[in-house]
Structure formats: C-alpha cells, structure tokens
Design goal:
single chain; 285 residues; alpha+beta; Tetrahydropterin Synthase, Chain A; 3 domains; four-stranded antiparallel sheet; 11 helices; 4 strands; 13% strand; rod-shaped
C-alpha cells in the first residue's frame, strides 16, 4: 500500500545495526519513498563509520537525493581519486599553451582529489577542478619567458597551482597536481610573424597596384588632353588660309608679306623635319 520494499528496508536496518549504527525503519522508509537508494545510504554510513569520517544520516540522504553516488563519494574520501587534466573523455589530449618566446607546449597533468563530505551538496564538481587547474597551468606557461624554463622546472607549474587553492567552493580537496608530460609543439610566434609579413606584403601589393592604376588613368587623361589640344591646333591652322585670303581681299596683306610668311613656314617645317631625324642641319656653302 505504501509502495515500500520492506525486505530491502529490513535488510538495510539489520546491516546498519550489526555495524553499530542505529537507523529507524521509518527513516529508511521515508528515504525510499522519496526515491532514494537506501542500500547505498547504509553502505556509505558504514564505510564512513569505519574510516572515522563524520557523516550523518540526513547528509547522506541529501547527497543521495541530489543525484550523486553517496557510497562512491565516501570511497573517494577514503581513497583519493586521480583525474586527468584535460579530461580525455572531452576529446582533449593535452593542454595547449604558448610561452612568451612564441613556443607552443602541450601539457598533460594528473590531479589527486579527495571528496569533502561537508561541501558535497552545492559544491562544484570535478569539471570545475579540471577547468581551474587547466587555467592555472596555462597561466604559468604563458607568463614564462622561454619554453626552456618550463622544461627545466615543471614542478613550478604544480607549485603555482597548489598555491592558488583552486579547490575553494568545490566538493573536492586538491591533494596534488602532477605534470605527466610536456611536449614541444609549433613555433606559434614565428607563424604569426610570417602570417603578418604575408598580410603586409599583400597590402603593399594592393597599394602598388592601386597607384599603378591611378598612374595609368592619369596617363590616359593626359593623352586624351593632348589629342584634344592637337585637334584645337589643327582647327586653328585650318583658319589661317581663310584669314590670309580675307586679308588679301581687304588690302591688309601684300604679295611680299605673303611670300615672307611662306618662307617662314618652309623654314619651320625644315627644322621640324631635321629634329625628328636627328641629323644636323647642313651648313650652306
């Protein structure tokens, strides 16, 4: 009627009683009705009692109902757990960081943690520990002048991370941070400089092409202007015969004046022809 597994409740109460822990049957029934795992609760309380870890029934119930494995939590508190940083399950094989001299380092670390029972409910999870440790490692490497200093003293990374007390507000205590491996990657600084040089080269080429285009356009403008001026000169020259004829009719130009103009024109054409051929004018005998 109450949807309680009486057999499980009785077995758990007997198991707790034999371990020296007195738990009321009504408390076990209430936890089971709330959706909890009474077997895990009793096993966790027994393990905590044997290890002299303070764990009350109410706290164990709260941990269990929060979705965590309370028995695994107690085991982690007794036997510290080692986690990888970064987490291989997330697809990251190593942490990538770059020193000030532009060299990329690939770092793998292992973090030893112990569960803090009193902070388990509401405390940050392992993902937070991994993220904070990874951030600390990247910070140390990024502030190093050269990659050689990091390779010489990898323990400086561990010391920095431990000194930062990154386990605050988490459900775990960081016991140690150990650097498993440091691999030298690419020269990121050189690549960035090469990319910048290539970008500058392309910008310079674009500017040169722009200037060349402007110069070509200006040349075309000047050619068109020259042709326009030449057309105006030819148009003006075509008016000269008309003007001479008009001068004859009006009596403003005599025959000698006309021949003088023709001599000047002939002399001008001769000099122009000589200047084009590049030959010196012949000295008259």
């Amino acid at each position: 009627f109450r949807h309680v597994d009486a057999h499980t409740v009785v077995e758990c109460r007997i198991m707790a009683k034999k371990a020296g822990i007195d738990i009321a049957s009504s408390s076990l029934e209430a936890h089971q009705l709330a959706g909890g795992n009474v077997t895990n609760i009793v096993r966790a309380l027994i393990a905590a009692s044997k290890a002299n870890i303070e764990l009350s029934f109410d706290r164990a119930c709260a941990i269990d109902l929060s979705g965590r494995d309370v028995f695994d939590t107690v085991k982690t508190s007794i036997n510290p757990k080692v986690i990888d940083c970064p987490d291989p399950a997330k697809g990251s094989g190593a942490l990538d960081a770059v020193t000030k001299d532009g060299i990329q380092l690939k770092v793998k670390a292992r973090v030893t943690i112990r569960t803090k029972i009193d902070r388990l409910v509401g405390g940050a999870t392992e993902e937070t520990i991994i993220a904070r440790v990874g951030e600390g490692i990247i910070t140390v490497i990024g502030s190093s002048e050269t990659y050689k200093k990091v390779l010489e003293k990898p323990d400086s990374i561990s010391n920095f991370v431990m000194a930062k007390e990154l386990d605050g507000d988490t459900a775990f205590q960081i016991l140690s941070v150990n650097i498993v491996s440091i691999d030298v990657g690419d020269n990121i600084g050189a690549k960035l400089q090469a990319d910048q040089a290539e970008a500058d080269k392309r910008i310079a080429q674009a500017e040169a092409e722009k200037r060349q285009g402007m110069a070509n356009a200006r040349g075309q403008e000047m050619k068109a202007l020259s042709e326009e001026n030449m057309a105006k000169v030819l148009a003006a020259e075509s008016e000269v015969p008309k003007a001479i004829a008009q001068a004859f009719r009006e009596g403003n130009l005599g025959i000698m004046d006309y021949y003088h103009i023709k001599n000047v024109q002939a002399d001008t054409e001769m000099k122009t022809s000589i200047s084009k051929t590049g030959l010196p004018p012949k000295t008259p005998l």
